[in-house]
Design goal:
The complex is a heteropentamer, with one copy of chain A, two copies of chain B and two copies of chain C. Chain A is α/β, with parallel strands linked by helices. Chain A has helices spanning 2-23, 41-55, 68-76, 89-97, 147-158, 162-166, 175-183, 194-197, 231-242, 244-252, and strands spanning 30-37, 59-66, 83-85, 107-112, 114-119, 138-141, 169-172, 189-193, 203-208, 218-224, 256-257. Chain B is built from nine helices and 21 strands. The chains are: A alpha/beta, B alpha+beta, C mainly alpha. Bound molecules: adenosine-5'-triphosphate (ATP) (2 copies) and magnesium ion (2 copies). One adenosine-5'-triphosphate sits between chains D (12-14, 32, 34-40, 84) and B (135, 138, 142-147, 172).
Chain lengths: 259, 356, 224, 356, 224
């Protein structure tokens, strides 16, 4: 019974969507799906989506939040997302290359800082980013799959510390892991986004990565998915994210506007 | 001196099982209708089933006492119980099943320590005595019914229990093997210092093996007596029936020495005092004697109205009624060879069983 | 708190367990009755596989099989109009695949412990194989089957990795309880995460205890 | 006319089971030592065990033929087999167990359709006939041995098979119940149109119930004969033993009418031609007759050297040897009441069994 | 290709199965012999819990229990000098916790299917409860127990979420096969992932088939 209802609901949704694009009637209800990196979930759910929906009463936004790599695969496999916001440019670029995201809609919206953290009550005497070598164990994101891991690796490599650090590093499969491992003292130190560090008071930020350690800063690009059936509304959402009030929200959550 | 004293009560679904008996060293046979609680009684003594109230003890130990809250584990009771369905361990071969009985008796009991070496030998002996040669390494699923029963029997005997409870130990064996093993068991039991209890449906078996016999009705022991005495003078209807008396009739006293068998419509003279609680009489099928037509006897002679004949291998059975007052059937048995239907039959006064 | 994950999880777990239960039993029956010992062992190995793959990886494979662009996914979409990936059916699919090995294995072990004489007795009484299965084999293997059912149900309810991959984490549509817990944790909202975990635990506890109770009642015949 | 023709060969671990017999409508009793393959034979006919080669068929259908690669399922054979260990379904009550037999016979068989309504009634009847009242809703683990056996028996009978195979159908019942149910079974079998085969360890049971008897040795049928004939004139040593002949001795021919029983050290005169293949003689324990000291007979009289006495309820057994040449024991049975030890015993020439 | 994950995984899965096997059986025995039906059901529910928690969540709990700052973790560190988190022992711990429910549940179902008369027979023969367990109950419940063992082993070998959380993903130390596969897959290196998956599959297949074979040999007595 449940299954049938669900598919029916899908059908009606689809037909409605088509009507909307055809007649371009503003009043027709539209549902958008946003696929966004997990670290964006709370800024979206708590503030941005309600704000956007208030401005556009006919648009409903749902979100799916996961690691950028996973979302990339899912978009490749046809998830019905309209907007994609990644935690790194790598995933976005791949999708643009595969023409799954419209190239000209992509905006490098936000920048995030990577920071060295230790547990809040840590007794280790760490002062700056390069002190990471003093830690016995280090939690990093897996450079292969976790964006923050890529940036960590890049920064450490540029600082000439990668070989030394990677030998004692645990490569977390997602940021949550890294954060918790540091908070619980399993790892003496770790590298995460500044925004992640801000979600908990069990860790303290030691230092940001030196400005010259990253060739490119950690960028959060956003774009409209090519297969989207609601491009108009999707574009509207992307545009909304670039407005001053949205950026202000992002900054509340620790992001920095990319200029 | 070892005793087995049993007195307990257990609620079952259909009736109360209420047993109360005591026995000295020796062998007790239990006879009773199917479903009357024989196996339950043995299980209770062995500690597999816990009664509701009562006391079970041997000379040495109290097994169970509801008042004193004693309830020994089966291990501590040292009671060997032959399950009616054998309960062989499916994962062990015949030899291992038997040996499973040995080792543990030894481990606990210091005086068996010296025998440790000949465990193998003991098993081998038993396998021979129970004619299980060649099956040592067979698993129970691949044994015939009788082979399973013999394995179970060997397993119990080897465990050297203080008390031996055998639930229909020979039911799955052919008559020839049965007799051999009865003799075998008899010899073993002679050297066995404890009590043993044997449940059987074969009254000859009980008669042969047991010094005392207990007869059970629905859930309780009706009679407990010396075997010989019981078989010769069963005082109760159930006892008479279970000891093989084919002819049992309701009876009423009609005179100081006269009795009427109401089911058959026959009156009998009795040479004894007729007891007050008399309610049945019984006559064994063998005790009807053909009477000559010219026979002078007038007492206890019944004119025969024949109803049927069946022939067993060595016996000949006549089913007849009282010709002058045909009512219920009576059975008469003769050895083969004397097979005419008599005009009249006669029964010795002393052979008439007066039953409660 | 958003209650949709609870509903979705319950729907998913229920749908999955119904399917897993019967399919697992069917597989078990099929394998137990195989003649060739070797084929039997190979089949057994194959059916146990999903258990050994990290769920996320299993999810990847599922996505490669049932994705809308892949042949099977396309087939379902074109012919039945059913989109499997990223829909509720995907959560069910993930739960089924990940819990099937437990159901299968437990049922197999249970079937093997039933006395074959009972089946022969059923046959000589003229019972069809179908009714022998349902009236003799199944009830007498119930303890083991139920163990499998409980394991499979719990696994289905807790399924996360494969679900996240093939169904996505779409709030109100495919976000099951475990995914909701993950989301909360990822956002550092431990408070919210604990709430969902509590619900998950209570839910599974109720169902498991319920299943235990049912067997307890049903298996009166075993009690002495 | 239904026939049961059995001819197969099956390798077992210890020996080959090789059976070959055919029977018309009627009842066949099987006697044989424990473990000789009786249950295996029944299982093979029922389709539970597949033989290696051979052919099994009834008048209507071929059950198994290794040459034609026929091997019917047990369902299609419509053979009712009473398992020696009952194989009751533990998850069904007594009533459901019995009903499990019924329904399926019906579903397949259109002519039973009309009886659909009285399934309940049929079960109720059987429960009464097998004295299981009050146990309808009991599960098998809570039944006594005899109750289980009766339930299994009822379940088989209600399934209306074409062929009925009963493996020790009364072994767990007391003698009284046994006789009642034998009569019950006898009546049912009279209205039963197919063959039936009964395995039993009780020769009286076979004698009462079966028109033909088969005697099995290790894995093969030695003798297949009319029951009456077999019991009166067993021609084989095994037959004599299994039909209850206690005294069997190796024998050799010493003259045209004279024979020596080597085990006993006695010579006997025989009134018949002595067959060539003679190797044993047998004398039933009842056939020794006490001979007066003054008896004039000189033939077949044995001076008694008594070795032991046992008393069964209605019998008295004397174990003796030949006083002039003491060797093996002989058994003599007398009815109770004539219990002196005789000086000599005598045996009728015609009663001496000459055996192969 | 890096071979260390293979070795680590094998060591982990073996160590875990040994522990899980015995502890699972012990729990099963304990629960089966409980007198109170209600306590029994509650214990059963509790023991089944790890299955319903998404592994990551279970990993959290483990981290909160065995983390170096938490009493138990501290205790181990102070008294035995063993740091559980981020060490090989943590991978084993994760595998044990996640596979225990299967072992427990399967063993329980199997024990319940053994004819109690066999145990009574052992008792009247004077066998100690210990040897009754090992010589009667255990061998006769073997099918079911083995099912549990196979499930538990496979689950332990495939354990990913909880391992990643408590043991981390340290190459050459705590990186098990599933973690290696995950990294490869997530990085889109399907080639490398397939290699590891293949090894994982082959490994589990060999062990499962081996276990099947052992039971097959051992259970000769069941075959007719
Ligand atoms: N576990 C049980 N719980 C309750 N009632 C039982 C149980 N086992 C047997 N009974 C009932 O108790 C009665 C006595 O059973 P028991 O097995 O002692 O009979 P029995 O005298 O040994 O009979 P048989 O000669 O047929 O073996 C029967 O009516 C049976 O139905
Ligand atoms: N499944 C089996 N596989 C191999 N051999 C078996 C199997 N079952 C029984 N046997 C062997 O075959 C022989 C015949 O067994 P069967 O059960 O037919 O004996 P039986 O004549 O019925 O004896 P009983 O009177 O003791 O029941 C026995 O020696 C037994 O050990
Ligand atoms: Mg009994
Ligand atoms: Mg047999």
């Amino acid at each position: 019974g449940a299954k049938k209802d669900d598919s029916k609901a899908d059908d009606t949704k689809a037909t409605k969507t088509e009507e909307t694009t055809e007649s371009a009637k503003e009043e027709e209800p539209v549902t958008l799906m946003v696929a966004a990196a997990a670290s964006l979930q709370y800024s979206y759910e708590d503030k941005l989506i309600p704000m956007f929906e208030k401005e556009n009463p006919n648009i409903t936004v749902t979100g799916t939040y996961d690691s950028s790599g996973k979302l990339q695969t899912q978009i490749e496999e046809g998830i019905e997302a309209d907007v994609f916001m990644s935690a790194a440019t790598k995933q976005m670029n791949t999708l643009v290359d595969e023409s799954l995201v419209d190239k000209d809609t992509v905006v490098d919206l936000l920048e995030n800082k990577i920071v060295l953290i230790t547990a809040a009550d840590s007794t280790l005497d760490l002062k700056e980013f390069t002190d990471i070598t003093k830690a016995q164990t280090v939690a990093l994101g897996d450079p292969e799959s976790v964006p923050v891991g890529q940036y960590s690796k890049e920064a450490l490599t540029n600082l000439g510390l990668w070989d030394e650090v990677s030998a004692k590093a645990s490569l977390g499969t997602n940021v949550t892991e890294v954060l918790n491992q540091v908070a619980e003292g399993s790892a003496d130190a770790g590298i995460v986004y500044a925004t992640d560090a801000a979600t908990t008071d069990k860790v303290k930020v030691i230092a940001e990565a030196p400005a010259d350690s990253l060739a490119e800063p950690a960028i959060y690009p956003v774009g409209v998915v090519t297969a989207s059936k609601n491009k108009e509304a999707a574009q509207k959402f992307v545009d909304f994210l670039g407005t001053g009030e949205a950026i202000a929200v992002f900054e509340d959550y620790g992001f920095i506007q990319n200029k | 001196m070892k005793k087995l004293q049993v007195d307990f009560r257990k609620r079952l679904k259909n009736f109360d099982l209420q047993m109360n008996f005591a026995m000295e060293e020796g062998r007790l046979g239990i006879l009773g209708a199917s479903g009357c609680g024989k196996s339950m009684t043995l299980k209770t003594i062995a500690g597999i089933v816990t009664p509701d109230t009562g006391r079970i003890e041997t000379g040495k130990t109290v097994f169970y006492d509801s008042a004193e809250k004693v309830n020994l584990t089966p291990q501590k009771r040292k009671v060997g119980y032959l399950f009616q369905n054998y309960a062989l361990f499916p994962n062990m071969t015949v030899a291992d099943n038997i040996a499973a009985g040995i080792r543990h008796a030894k481990r606990k009991d210091k005086r068996h320590r010296t025998e440790k070496q000949n465990v193998r030998e003991q098993v081998k002996n038993l396998i021979e005595q129970f004619q299980l040669q060649g099956l040592e390494n067979q698993y129970p699923v691949k044994l015939s019914g009788g082979q399973q029963q013999r394995t179970a029997l060997a397993r119990i005997l080897v465990s050297r229990p203080d008390i031996l409870l055998l639930d229909e130990p020979f039911s799955a064996m052919d008559s020839y093997l049965r007799e051999e093993l009865q003799i075998e068991l008899d010899n073993r039991l002679k050297t066995f210092s404890g009590c043993s209890v044997i449940v059987s449906h074969d009254r000859d078996e009980i008669y042969k093996l047991c010094s005392h016999t207990m007869i059970m009705g629905e859930g309780s022991n009706i009679i407990f007596e010396e075997t010989k005495k019981l078989f010769n003078q069963p005082r109760y209807m159930q006892a008479a029936r279970l000891t093989g008396c084919k002819n049992i009739s309701k009876a009423e006293r009609v005179g100081p020495r006269t009795i009427r068998a109401t089911d058959w419509g026959v009156e009998f003279c009795i040479d004894r005092e007729i007891p007050k609680q008399l309610s049945y009489i019984g006559i064994r099928a063998h005790d009807f004697i053909p009477a000559d037509v010219n026979d002078q006897r007038r007492e206890n002679v019944i004119p025969v109205f024949p109803c049927g004949i069946t022939k067993a291998p060595f016996e000949w059975t006549l089913l007849f009624q009282n010709k002058e007052n045909p009512k219920g059937n009576m059975w008469m048995k003769q050895e083969r060879g004397k097979e005419q239907i008599p005009e009249k039959v006669w029964v010795d006064q002393s052979k008439i069983l007066l039953l409660e | 708190m958003d209650f949709s994950p609870i509903l979705i999880s319950m729907k998913t777990a229920s749908a999955a367990i119904v399917f897993t239960f019967f399919v697992g039993i069917a597989f078990a029956y099929w394998v137990v009755n195989m003649k060739h010992e070797k084929v039997k062992m190979v089949c057994d190995g194959l059916l146990t596989l999903p258990l050994v793959l990290p769920p996320t990886v299993a999810g990847f494979f599922l996505l490669y099989v049932f994705g809308v662009k892949r042949p099977i996914g396309k087939f379902f979409l074109d012919f039945f109009g059913v989109k499997i990936a990223f829909s509720w059916s995907a959560t069910v699919l993930a739960a089924i695949i990940m819990s099937l090995p437990m159901m299968y294995r437990s049922a197999r072990g249970a079937f093997e412990q039933v006395d074959p004489n009972l089946l022969y007795a059923g046959r000589t009484l003229g019972m069809s194989e179908w009714s022998i299965f349902w009236r003799i084999l199944f009830p007498n293997a119930l303890s083991g089957i139920l163990s499998g059912g409980i394991l499979a149900f719990a696994r289905g309810l807790g399924e996360f990795g494969a679900t996240a991959m093939i169904a996505g984490n779409i709030a109100g549509r495919t976000q099951t309880l475990p995914l909701a817990v993950y989301s909360k944790v990822a956002a550092g909202d431990m408070q919210g995460a604990y709430q969902y975990v509590l619900i998950l635990v209570v839910l599974s506890f109720l169902v498991v205890t319920g299943m235990n109770y049912v067997t307890y009642i049903y298996q009166r015949y075993n009690r002495r």
